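Q: What would this chain look like folded?
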Amino acid sequence: RHHLEKKRYLVIIHGISSETILNCLRASLPDDNNGSSVVLMLDTESEEVAWHANTLNKDGINGIHMLNRLDEKRSGELFCSRASRKEMSDVKEDMSKYDKIVYDITGGYPLAIVLLAGLLRFKEKPGQWEAVLQLLRPGPGMEEAQGVEGNKIIGSVLPKGRRRIEWRMSSTTQSNLSTRTTLERVFWASFEDLPNDLKSCFLYFAAFSKCTSMPADDIVRIWIAEGFIKPQKGKTMEELGYNYLNELLLRCLVKVEEEANDAYINEEFSVHKRLHGFLQSEAREAGFIDVHDTYDIFVPPSVRRLSFMSFERGHTAFTNKFRKLRSFISCVDEQDQRNDSQGVYQKRRHDLKFLCRSKFLRVIHVSGLGIRELPNEIGDMVHLRYILIGSMDLEKLPSSIKSLLNLQTLDISETRVEEIHPSFWKIKTLRHVMASKLSLPASIDEQLDELQTLWGVKPAQQGEWDQRDCPLHKTTKLRSLFLDGFEQSKHGAALESALGKMSFLANLKLEGDEIPSCVFTAQNLRYLETIDIAGKIKWPEATSDVRRIRPNLVMLKVYKDSSEEAVPQHIQNQL
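A: My prediction, written as structure tokens:
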């Protein structure tokens, strides 16, 4: 209010669904009779809020403007573009016959249209399509879809010479469809259609705020830690997890927010804000996760998954012992500093000691809190599989972390931790280790065949690497490697020898005094997709065919001060 006082302003707000919130907003804005305006963009389901906002206008001015949604033809075009599958020859089929029923179901609401398209994309035509459309059609069509087989709602057809095709939905869901808004009906139908394992994966997005997008790598690793993804022959669990994420994307239940993260390509996903509330409601009713936006609220001791999105009042204090807790998640904005009563900035401190009695804990995902240390008792959490701590106050890990023999992921890239107990590298289940500048030991005893990501590590300050037994020789199955601070005289030969064995490596980032020539010449590094290098570079000869040797390379990033000359022209031409 103070910032806008005596100024003319235009505020555009979307997503308010409560008259109470609107009143608070109105009270926080100055009114200096200077022509300032507030524009609320609301869905038709929030029409009461719109009329309440209209009463706040002076002189009885009607400020409500109804925006048109898509007409029948454009609704059909959007539906066709999202529901068609090229391999199923949908392109050749006349999809215009669905225009009217799609418009009747969705009312021209674009989000409802793409959700419906995502649902039908995974159904057989025409049988299952007709069953779904009749079930969702408002009015008599919904009654016609009701079957007589127990408590199930069944849509079916009997194509000549073929087995009966059925699409089933529980009577509870059918009841929900009859009382929900247009968007809710389509969303619940899409949600109920998910396989059970994929449904659990989707529900996990409810643990994060609607303004938070999650990196694909993080969400997949959490799914794996929770046990939602089962191994299949010929594929890693990560590959299966990305397939799950891709199916949610094709079903239009999640959307892509970002694609680039430095040299390491990592898309970020989120749930549409209009769907996020539905998802959290389902997660809460199913007892899947407890989500809170403040810490001073009663949390039942039997909770299995717990998520906090805000710690506005400072230090956390929990009296309950969460003996059944499997996951603790807290992703908040950076709120480490606050004003005290004298207006002085003070750091907020938090700890995780309340988790010490949670012996079944599998996931700890915390970012945005001021955490100085982890409790030493963390080593007793033998089921722990995933740890992500994002706090620049954290400088040291307890030695007991070496006892987490089931740990798969350790992400301390947003901390100042540079040392870890040497026995940590004996954990054979490690799959992903991300840090900022974590020192590697001179050697590693165990072969880490499960380790796929080793990001943000450096050689120890003292000592040289043995060309036959450096730590990277025990990590030959890596897909991603970021090594910093190496010296050619101490580590170059060992590094080149180790890289020669990493035939699965896809992402490589090196920062040192001299980059090994094998980065561009080694025949076994054919799967490399991204190369990010800083240091003196010995480029391949002009006769070398880099494109043939690196057929999968999509990005080469070279720091300007890395070499005496720019990337040679013959390299640029080939790439």
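The two ends are 54 Å apart (CA to CA).
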